[in-house]
Amino acid sequence: MGSNFQEGIIYQTMNKTAVKHTVKINYDMCKGCGLCIAYCTKKVLKESEHLNKAGYHYAEPDDTAQCSGCMICTLVCPEVVIEVYDE
Amino acid sequence: MNKVFMSGNHTFAESAIRAGCRCYFGYPITPQNELGEYMANHMRKAGGVFIQSESETAAINMVIGAAATGTRAMTSSSSPGISLKQEGISFLAGFELPAVIVNVMRGGPGLGNIAPAQGDYFQATRGGGHGDYRTPVFAPASVQEIADLTAHAFNVADRYRTPVMLLSDGMMGQMKEPVVFSEPVTDFPEKEWALKGRGDGPSRYLCSLILDALEMERHNWKLVRKYEEIEKNEVKYEEYMIDDAEIVVIAYGTTARIAKGAIKRVRKDGVRAGMIRPISLWPFPKKLLNNLASRVRQFVVFEMSTGQMLEDVQIALEGKADITFHGRPGGTVPTPIEFARIIYREYQKTVKKEK
Amino acid sequence: MKLKNPWPRYYKKDVVTHYCPGCGHGIVHRLVAEVLEEMDLGKRAICVNPAGCAVLAYLYFDFDVIESAHGRGTAIATGVKRSRPDLFVFTYQGDGDLSAIGTAETIHSANRGENITVIFINNAVYGMTGGQLAPTTLIDMKTTTTPAGRDPKYDGYPVHITDVVAQFPGVAYAERVAVDGPAGIRKTRKAIANAFQTQVDGLGYSIVEVLSPCPTNWKLTPVDSFKWITEVMTTEYPIGVLTDKRSKKE
After folding, report:
1. Which residue in the set A2, A39, A75 is minimally distant from C14, CB to CB?
2. Do residue C5 and residue A84 have CB atoms under 8 angstroms apart?
3. Cβ-based contacts of B88 with chain C (< 8 Å)
4. Does B241 share its domain with B229?
5. ipTM of predicted complex
6. A and B in touch (3+ CB pairs within 8 angstroms)
7. CA B1 – CA B128 distance, rounded (Å)
8. Whole-prediction pTM
């Protein structure tokens, strides 16, 4: 991915083995289309107040919500700028 | 290979296959239908591809696809069909892909007729499609020369990575003459530029879209350097009774054949006439004519059109000599007597008077 | 930290596409790259993509591409595939390209049953040139050349080219899918895989029509564009497999 990644949010699954998921977004290459935000089942993502170099309000992970690792954001993203990690 | 008796259209096809052409795409149009029919009967046997496409436009684009993989590819048509191929030929030039396009000319413009004519000269030699490009154009004047020039066209196309046009006409396509073919070509130039899938290497692409104007300009000048090379190396012409000629005919293809008859005729009446027959219409033999004009005062241009090669002659001679033009457009075919009278009259009017 | 979605191997990295925010091309490009990787076809793949919004696909696809004149994609693909049957050849074309200027090429490459795959992006407008009427523009739909909405009296009816070619014996597989949400995108990926497999098995022509969002020219947000496809566009262009003659061709 691009160099300037922001740290995502950790998700605690229900079962004992704590599978944490981290969402990382390449803010510079996001075009703020909002699809990932709309279709994220856990409402992890929100539109940033900040603008990237191209002048888009990029999507960024919301600190409080939890990511389930369902990958829908990566499915709907037209710019391939979202990465989801398992701990 | 011994001598066979074959039509021009069949000879285009046979010579192409022998030259290693392995993809032919064409569409029926008189007077060159027999070319495609020959391919239908022989290309697959030679291990190649024959498709009768849905249009001449589709055919030239199929040639682009085959050429892109490094395959020797050809299409053929007649005047109206060649107009439909111009976009594709411009793309071939932009892509820098080799290909051979045969135009068996007929009367025009519009639907015209199926009789032989030479009205597509401008279209062929001035880059008939859009954009800044030229295409080498060779004009055979006999069935044997069709065989030789077809093989030559494939070599020139590969050598310079350019579409090459063979310009003949309905008479030459239909006419049968004895012809001797050279042996089939088996070793071909390695084309590392051809697309063959990236394999383990980097991906590559062939595109003629260059959005950056400066880059496009660089590409245009690169093509010009190629055309200068072609102009330097690929000029072809025939000199006929030139050494003592005081009046020189300039004609190509079928018209040149007729002019030879006229020249023999006037020679009997003591008229020292000769002919330059351009075989490469582009690059045109400009230097040759210009040098000749220092000695010869009178030129006669014969065309089966209203005068198109005429302009190249005018450019080449730079006003150093008089030019008389006599053309028969629309598919009418002039006779040797008709040409002889004109040569004789011009000779009396100019060359004789000066003496 | 294990990355769940590694970068698609046949998609160029760190290249910002020229596509508008929410454009369907970006999604379908990724799906094509992913399926090529999954089926290990990238090494011998050649994409022929004509002029249209996706004309610059060669800047994004990381496999060999030939850019084609508008409408001539399937003719060029025919030349490539016939001259090199061992290559994996597919076109990536827009609706105007495929069902307006390239209609004859589309119909006849399908009728010849060329063993190629056609990825047909149907976004109901001419995107690259600024949102004009396309053959697939819906009735009453406003475009820059149907300012009052498409009126059949002047502009004819939406063209169903995929349904037409689906009738041809040479067409082994034809499906229409929609990039209108996660489920639709998954179905699109499956359809592309089926079509690619059709070619790999040598069963003849395969075509996937993808209803694709064009927020800029539809004057909708990306999210609303997805909804518009689901609620409106699919009424004119229903989703589903239009023909599947693969078993018959085994």
Report:
1. A2
2. yes
3. 69, 72
4. no
5. 0.91
6. no
7. 37
8. 0.94
